Amino acid sequence: xxxxxxxxxxxxxxxxxxxxxxxxxxxxxxxxxxxxxxxxxxxxxxxxxxxxxxxxxxxxxxxxxxxxxxxxxxxxxxxxxxxxxxxxxxxxxxxxxxxxxxxxxxxxxxxxxxxxxxxxxxxxxxxxxxxxxxxxxxxxxxxxxxxxxxxxxxxxxxxxxxxxxxxxxxxxxxxxxxxxxxxxxxxxxxxxxxxxx
Length: 197
Ligand code: ADP
Ligand code: 5GP
Hints:
With 197 residues, the protein is an alpha/beta fold. It has helices spanning 11-15, 31-41, 71-79, 98-106, 117-126, 140-150, 155-171, 184-195; strands at 20-25, 46-47, 51-52, 67-68, 83-89, 92-97, 111-114, 131-136, 177-180. The protein has a five-stranded parallel sheet, sandwiched between helices. Strand 5 (83-89) and strand 6 form a beta hairpin. Helix 2 packs across helix 8 (184-195).
């Protein structure tokens, strides 16, 4: 429209705040796989990079997958109130920095956070307009099969993650949308229908 009137700036776009989407799901359910496919198709949507105290997996890169952070530095940032949300999950801390999220939304860009349930519910309380999406497995047996098939965790870590599953699924009843990741393409389409409306 602003080109039609030869205006220098699209003020309406400038005033429009971005929308925040929060994606959760038990470890191994396929969040990473789905998100990768989604972001390849929709590169205009931003993905938040969290801070974590867990060790990087072999293929993970600092600043890309996570900001890998020492526990003492993470706790200092908590004290300074730098996190929009944070939580302990299976013995490690994970958190989303507030400043970057605010800046991104203020620019009018839509943003996805891929975080666990305790953090997601903190976000919903602080930002009620955020949209919470939970990815469900077709069954717990299939989830365990995928988690083991990924081959990135030792047995103790796998057991710890499976231990969280029922609590997470119960928690997902408070989410806005729940998507079953059975057929990957179908789940991707459903995710698109929520985020791209
Ligand atoms: P998460 O990020 O939720 O922990 P991943 O994306 O790493 O999970 O997926 C865990 C494993 O499950 C991977 O090996 C992935 O290829 C596989 N996977 C993901 N989605 C599906 C699906 N719909 N059907 C079968 N396998 C899947
Ligand atoms: P992983 O160790 O498999 O990368 O992540 C473990 C869990 O932590 C996943 O459920 C993931 O969604 C969650 N997670 C990742 N980043 C954050 C974050 O910034 N905050 C919270 N609360 N959870 C996160």
